[in-house]
Structures are given as C-alpha cells and as structure tokens.
Amino acid sequence: MHLKQQQKQVSAKFCSPGSLSAYRKLRRKQLQTMAHDDDLESPCNIHLANEGEHSLVNANETECATDLQPMVDQNIATESEPQEMNPSKGKKRKHRGPTKLVRAHARSMEERPMVILNSFGQPVGPTDKVVKEYTRFLGTLARNPEFAPLTYCDWPSLPTHYKMWNYIQEKYLVPTEGRKWAMQTMDDQWRAYKSRMKSEHYYAYKTDAERLKSCPQTMPENQFRALINYWDSEPVKEESERNKANRQLLDDMHTMGPTSYAMLRQNLKEKDPNKEEPSKAKVYKESRKRKPGKSYKTSYEKTRQNILIGTNGRNGGSRM
C-alpha cells in the first residue's frame, strides 16, 4: 500500500509528454489559473501565476506544456485560437489548430509502424497514410520549442538533431538511410513555421509591447522576446527584404499539398504497366495539376509553357 501511495505521488508531479491525460491535466490547470488572472492568455506565462507551495508542480506542468504543445490530437482545436463572427448566425466560429498527432507521440516502441524508403532514402510506404502521418509528425517536432527552438539563426545551428532523430526512432521504424530526408523535411517546416510566426505575431503589430502581448501559445515568452530582438536588428531587416523579393520570383509551384515527390514517383511507377520509373517530364506535369474551380495564388501560364516545351522536346521540336 505504501508503494502505491509513493507511485501516486510521483505521477502527480510528472506527466508523460504526448499523453491525453497529461493534456487534460494541463488544460485544467490553465483554466484554474486564467480564472484568477484574466490577463494570462498564453500557456507560456502560466507558471508566473502561482508561486509558493505549488511552484514545483507549476514548473513541471510548464515543462510538460513545452513538450506537449505540438503533441495534441489534430482534431482538438486550441481554445484560444483566433475566432471570427459568422454573419448568418452571429456566433463565433473556432478554427482548427495546427496538427498535433497525440496518438503518434503516445505510441510505444511495440506499436511503431515501419517506414519503407526508396533508393534515395525517401519514405514511400508501406501506405500513403503512414507516409503522410510520418511527414506531419516531423512537422510537430519542427514546431516544438524544446526540440527546435526558433532562437537559432538557421537549422544546421540547432544542437538537437541527434535528440530529434532518437525520438523519431522511438515512434517509427525508420532505416538510418532516412535520416537525411527527415532532417531536410524538418528544416523546411521549421523555416515555414518561423516565417508564419513572424507574419502573425511580428508584422501584425507596430510596437514590441503589442507583440509581446500576442506571444504565441506554442512558444515560451523568453524565446519570443529573443526573436523580437533579433527581428528588430537592421541587418536582419535588410536580409528579410531581399528574401521577400526573391520569393516573389517563384511562380511555378507544385500543387501536391503534403504529398512528396517520392510518393508521386512511387504511385506513377505502380500505375505503369511495365513498372518503370516515371520521367522527369511526367512527374513535373502530374505535380502541377490543378482542380477546376479552385483558385490558386500563381498563374498557370508558365507551367503550361514548360509542359509544352517538354512535349516538343520529346517530339523532336515539332508542334502537336
């Protein structure tokens, strides 16, 4: 009986990152804290609300919140997500938050799905569902302030690559050859997440005081404060303007969404009667397909010209 009481005391001070029980416990604590202080809107400030005899518990829950933030089920909407009015009903409508994948993070070693790679070390199986979940899972790590804090200038500077790869191996059976692709994918998603945070929480406000009040829920305040100081520097502002100008030159983007080129090539190969590798021209054409009636940010004219040039090249330059 004494042993069970000790186990209960230990479990009361520790929550397993990624578990649903930990998330529910965290949300209960957040609601209790917000009831005492209406100004505390961000989870990264919760540990400032209660001090004294509850400081150890609050410190542990804040640490769990850091690990758990990108690990909530994708179907659970964050309660403090931006809301907008529905003109027809006059009610506020909640937006779905970012993908959290609680079930994947709570997965045990025995439950790990296998990820099949192609000759380039890119995931292509065993099913599209597993590959897409694995890609989204990497995105949750790229948005985790514990694994990938945004306070570093670039992805190679992060000292947590080895830690992230070990964690990936705990949730998926991925061959060592897939490490390079995983790191490149997280690099892309980390930079995209950093860009989105800058757009929504830096450019959207005029002063640093207003920006600090809008601290993202997925980022500790000390990290966000460091980011603001970094973005305020003149060299960074100049580099940002150059990067935005270069980004505007990109007008031929793929329309595959979360589907990777590796998956597209694998699917085209399986559909081919001779099971041959698809040509670059075929992959390009398939990756630029557009749905009728759907609006896109870029024009299709350049893509149409590239497809026409590729077709003419295969036909000896004759126009068909």
Overview features:
4% strand, single chain, 13 helices, disordered C terminus, globular, 4 strands, 50% helix, 320 residues, two-stranded antiparallel sheet, mainly alpha
CA-based shape: globular
Q: Work out the helix count.
A: 13
**Percent helix among the residues?**
40-55%
* Termini separation: 84 Å
The radius of gyration computed from the alpha-carbon positions, rounded to a whole number of angstroms, is 23 Å
List unreliable stretches of 5+ residues: 10-21, 37-90, 316-320
Could you give the count of β-strands?
4
With strands numbered from the N-terminus, the spatial order across the biggest sheet is 1-2
Tell me, rounded to a whole number, the average pLDDT.
Answer: 74
In terms of structural class, how would the helical and strand content be classed?
A: mainly alpha
> Largest beta sheet, briefly?
2 strands, antiparallel
Give the SSE string.
HHHEEHEEHHHHHHHHH
- Tell me what portion of residues adopts beta-strand conformation: under 5%
